[in-house]
């Protein structure tokens, strides 16, 4: 009996390491599909795009290695790139602060409601899930010279004697695109701020009321500081998304109103739109388009770091 038990223990001892090593393999097996798809469809295209930016290639013939010539041409001989970057930054400056302020104010008003909160949340969030194509058509018809509702209202109120070409004004082009961005994303900002306000412990507000704090004082001294992390998150993500602006200007001016020119005097041309034009529409310069994409990537990283340090309060400590 003792010999048989010793043999069983020896057998278990021999098989235990193999069993334990077999169990350790399963996490890697489950993670393997994601890793394979990530390297195949994300990491490899990113590396290949950078390698392509060092070549001259039209998508058909052989690739010609030219080093950093695409970047030199982009930064020194392509004024349209700086024009597109300027347009992108101006539109972002007009839209991001408006979304932050209006989103916080709207969230605070809805947070104070006792009845109808779900209804107002749904109504304000609907534009965010509306397709960009529909938004482009809506604003195109709103500001149309002949049939636009904006001109019709202003004419009936006697504020204008004749219709105005809103979509053909370079300055108004940026303003209208900023309005599109604010109208579409305001519900998202409201939802994020509303979630942050809901997460604040009510004990803090009760203690403030006991100390005699008013509504405005409570909002500025308690609510705003506790929402700082959410504000930093929204600022950084808004800058990243703003520098990649494409849908709104392209849908507003990519049809009959402006073709592929980027709107009046290229006032609506953004960096991504220029990247699409140079790579696929006005020319097939894939290497040059890759250089635009990587230059924009560097700009996004720099702006994200600066905005994070400033909005999080670390800019003064640096």
Automatic annotation (TrEMBL):
<comment type="similarity">
    <text>Belongs to the binding-protein-dependent transport system permease family.</text>
</comment>
<keyword id="KW-1133">Transmembrane helix</keyword>
<feature type="transmembrane region" description="Helical">
    <location>
        <begin position="286"/>
        <end position="308"/>
    </location>
</feature>
<keyword id="KW-1003">Cell membrane</keyword>
<keyword id="KW-0472">Membrane</keyword>
<feature type="transmembrane region" description="Helical">
    <location>
        <begin position="89"/>
        <end position="111"/>
    </location>
</feature>
<protein>
    <submittedName>
        <fullName>Carbohydrate ABC transporter permease</fullName>
    </submittedName>
</protein>
<feature type="transmembrane region" description="Helical">
    <location>
        <begin position="226"/>
        <end position="246"/>
    </location>
</feature>
<feature type="transmembrane region" description="Helical">
    <location>
        <begin position="28"/>
        <end position="51"/>
    </location>
</feature>
<dbReference type="InterPro" id="IPR000515">
    <property type="entry name" value="MetI-like"/>
</dbReference>
<dbReference type="Pfam" id="PF00528">
    <property type="entry name" value="BPD_transp_1"/>
</dbReference>
<keyword id="KW-0813">Transport</keyword>
<dbReference type="InterPro" id="IPR035906">
    <property type="entry name" value="MetI-like_sf"/>
</dbReference>
<feature type="domain" description="ABC transmembrane type-1">
    <location>
        <begin position="85"/>
        <end position="307"/>
    </location>
</feature>
<dbReference type="InterPro" id="IPR051393">
    <property type="entry name" value="ABC_transporter_permease"/>
</dbReference>
<feature type="transmembrane region" description="Helical">
    <location>
        <begin position="123"/>
        <end position="143"/>
    </location>
</feature>
<keyword id="KW-0812">Transmembrane</keyword>
